[in-house]
Amino acid sequence: MDQTIQEYNDAMSTEDKSICQKLRHEIDKHLTGAESKIWHRHPVWFINGNPIVGYSKLKGGVRLLFWSGQSFDEPDLLPEGSFKAAEARYTDVNQVDTDHLKRWLDKSVKIQWDYKNIVKRKGVLERLV
User: Fold this and answer.
1) Residues 3, 74: contact at Cβ < 8 Å?
2) How many Cα atoms are found within 13 Å in the side-chain-facing hemisphere of 27?
3) What is the CATH number of domain 5-110?
4) What does pTM read for this prediction?
5) Domain locations in the chain?
6) pLDDT grade for 2, boundaries at 50, 70 and 90
7) What is the mean pLDDT of the chain?
């Protein structure tokens, strides 16, 4: 049986669960029409099969990851990995700035790199929008 996002959140500590629930609420509110599921053991939202945003529990808190986030030109999102991803990390629910999050989610719809076909393109990313 596949794990649901709610089951993922429910498995967290009280503070991490609060962060995850807030992130999920805001993502669902602003990414209407996006598909959400557990992907590689973490909640991820997709537009037309392309991963947009997700979150995961790390040792020091909860990481919010935008696959195309390095292209958002947002100082509060830090580069992650060798592609275009960027992240924010939270250890307290009060650190989640919903104004920033809304702006980032708006940009995530307008600025996308094609992660869906990265394997076909042998690791080369192309800009979608």
Assistant:
1) no
2) 25
3) 3.90.1150.200
4) 0.92
5) 5-110
6) low
7) 93
